[in-house]
Design brief:
Elements (H helix, E strand, L loop, with lengths): L8 E10 L2 E11 L4 E6 L5 H8 L7 E6 L8 H7 E4 L11 H11 L9 H7 L15 H13 L5 E5 L7 H16 L3 E5 L3 H7 L2 E6 L2 E6 L1 H8 L4 H9 L9
Parallel strand pairs: 3-7, 3-8, 5-6, 6-7
Antiparallel strand pairs: 1-2, 1-4, 8-9
This protein binds adenosine-5'-triphosphate.
The site of adenosine-5'-triphosphate (ATP) has 11 residues, from β2 and α1.
Membrane topology: Peripheral membrane protein
Subcellular location: Cell membrane
Pfam families: ABC_tran
Length: 250
């Protein structure tokens, strides 16, 4: 893995509209190199839209966005080669096995990237024993782990994960946390979204809560709690989600 001295993600004043609906209304986010940053949000707050912009799938309507120092809209191919992405909805081919799929994935993704051997990758995500089973027969949790394996295939500098533990049982979820911690130890930066506040409190070096297209609070958990004078992240989340947009502070 090559290292970078740029911040992993630098977003200022990001705006995005769906027609006349303002989904992002001036979002600021920094993910420091080597940290795990959690983006929380109320339903429809704009988390997925933010990730779509970071991945170069949507053109920002305003503001500036840098991912590993690059403009994801103009340099999408370069960003994709260095960023591992897990989308909220994946479309894995049901007829292939995990091993066949990862080998195909490695051939289809950027030839300039270094690929982790597929067997090693499957072992890394705890799927070695399921490598020859058709994907259509895998459980939801196993498929989510295969999603993660595709994101890890090019040994990325940055992982962008949209609800990577959604629908996993508690044990598989904590296994995934351990896996993410392994990647942090290797210097990978991670940005993930989740609806699980416990996950955010456990994993995040820093976090942000989006509400109606704006960052309502951000920072390390202890600073967020101190700033709001509240005992738990759940209390902060409740306060944010019951605040009207005009009252949201930046
Ligand atoms: N294609 C679209 N057309 C119109 N509105 C959209 C479209 N996609 C998303 N939106 C709206 O933009 C807002 C932000 O959506 P987004 O999916 O980014 O939120 P989110 O924080 O990921 O939500 P959730 O946590 O519920 O998945 C929502 O109000 C959503 O209804």
């Amino acid at each position: 893995m090559t290292t970078t001295h740029s911040p992993a993600v630098h977003v200022r004043g990001l705006r995005y509209d769906y027609g006349s609906f303002e989904a992002l209304r001036g979002v600021d986010i920094d993910v420091h190199s080597g940290e795990l940053f959690v983006l929380l949000g109320t339903n429809g707050a704009g988390k997925t839209t933010t990730l779509d912009v970071l991945e170069g799938r949507c053109q920002p309507g305003g503001g500036s966005v840098r991912v590993l120092g690059m403009d994801p809209w103009r340099q999408r191919r370069d960003v994709t080669a260095r960023v591992g992405i897990v989308l909220q909805e994946s479309a894995l081919p049901q007829e292939l096995t995990p091993l066949e799929f990862l080998r195909l994935w490695n051939r289809l993704t950027d030839a300039a990237s270094t690929h982790i051997p597929s067997d090693d990758n499957l072992a890394c995500v705890g799927l070695a024993h399921r490598r020859d089973v058709r994907i259509g027969r895998l459980s939801g949790g196993e498929r989510r782990r295969l999603d993660l394996a595709t994101a890890l295939a090019t040994d990325p500098e940055l992982l962008v994960l949209d609800e990577p533990t959604s629908g996993l049982d508690p044990e598989t979820r904590t296994d995934t946390w351990d896996l993410l911690r392994d990647f942090l130890r290797r210097g990978t930066s991670i940005l993930l979204t989740t609806h699980y506040l416990e996950e955010a409190a456990t994993l995040a070096d820093r976090l942000a809560i989006l509400h109606r297209g704006r960052v309502a609070v951000s920072g390390p958990l202890d600073e967020v709690l101190a700033a709001r004078r509240l005992p738990t992240l759940a209390d902060v989340f409740h306060e944010v989600s019951t605040t009207t947009p005009e009252e949201v502070s930046r």
